[in-house]
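Progress against Task 2.4 (sequence-to-structure conversion) is shown through the following example record, which the project officer requested during the mid-term review.
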Amino acid sequence: MSLFKGLKSIEGLRFRIVDAKGQVVGRLASQIARVLMGKDKPTFSPWKDDGDVVVVVNAQDVEFTGRKWDRKVYRWHTGYPGGLKQRTAKEQHERKPGEVLRAAVMGMLPKNNLRRSMARKLRIYAGPEHDYQNVDGLDVVNFEMPPRKLREKGSVLVLPPGFEPFNPHAYWKRYGHRLGKTTDAAEQQQQQ
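Structure tokens generated for the chain above:
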């Protein structure tokens, strides 16, 4: 397979390396689509294909939130009568690890004539190895995902020292279950 198959010219293109390990599919796909369209560049024009090449590694380690591995279904039709086929996200990921991410990115690209040329710039590898590591003359840049706050399930909301809610009754009524307190306990604490 040629490294530059489907690309008219690699002049001026950056090759963005994205590590998909532990990333949520939808969030990652939206960032990849943004780079493929060129929206992160000051020269963005919707009628030009100015996006960079995106090389995704560790696509086998992407994640879904909630129960989407079992409940999300990919459907397609073979063209024959009764030819509707479907697979869950888990089955699709086991067969082709990159197809789940590719389908998400394709859904976020514009539905016009530039879509195919933008999709050609997406290279997905299941593991950590890719073909663009040791090629001379390429502008290879690691792409950092924007930071995201993660809250562990069942974690307790820690209040800063000296924090005094403006309306304690409403505050404990709303957030007391996270702190393991009821409104009665909050009222007793307020009276003391």
